[in-house]
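User: Design a sequence. Structure:
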């Protein structure tokens, strides 16, 4: 049975591949600015009207002012001594994708959880579109449930699908997991 065939890659259709080096330099500088905890100077890296499109729990911020007031400042209040580490980047034309982690101290309220002083890892994935040396769009996935779990709160109330993992070690080491999902049906294999 054939599935749907919607148009794919609409946003990258007109990607200017000659801009790869410019995009990489812009993202390098922007990450350095974030690691310097620079709020006032973010206009060097982000267009005034850029869109920050986050997952549930993070929200959508329209423009630099909203990003600063409703993401960057609250984030820095909740997490101090923060450093951003892009573990991998792929840059092509005006687009850059990255995943990585932030390491920080939980020093302020986060998702209703009072400061614990615990050091946490905040995993993320970012897709940036850079035009004329500035980020104009930023799609973000921040793993807030993982952060909450590190702080002793189960956001899934025991219903997270980690319970189906037969070997958590396989996830960390890359070894093949030969276990069977407890809900797998004969026809699903």
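Assistant: Done.
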């Amino acid at each position: 049975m054939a599935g749907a065939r919607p148009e794919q890659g609409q946003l990258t259709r007109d990607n200017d591949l000659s801009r790869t080096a410019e995009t990489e330099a812009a993202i390098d500088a922007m990450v350095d600015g974030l690691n310097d905890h620079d709020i006032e100077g973010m206009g060097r890296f982000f267009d005034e009207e850029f869109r920050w499109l986050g997952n549930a729990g993070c929200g959508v911020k329209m423009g630099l002012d909203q990003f600063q007031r409703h993401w960057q400042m609250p984030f820095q209040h909740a997490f101090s001594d923060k450093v951003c580490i892009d573990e991998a980047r792929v840059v092509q034309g005006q687009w850059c994708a990255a995943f990585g982690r932030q390491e920080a101290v939980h020093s302020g309220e986060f998702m209703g959880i009072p400061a614990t002083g615990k050091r946490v890892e905040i995993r993320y994935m970012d897709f940036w579109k850079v035009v004329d040396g500035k980020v104009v769009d930023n799609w973000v996935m921040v793993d807030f449930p993982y952060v909450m779990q590190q702080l002793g709160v189960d956001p899934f109330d025991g219903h997270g699908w980690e319970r189906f993992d037969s070997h958590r070690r396989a996830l960390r080491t890359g070894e093949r997991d030969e276990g069977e999902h407890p809900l797998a049906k004969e026809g699903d294999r």
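The chain is about 25% helix and 30% strand. Residues 17-153 form a domain with the Nuclear Transport Factor 2; Chain: A, fold (CATH 3.10.450.50).
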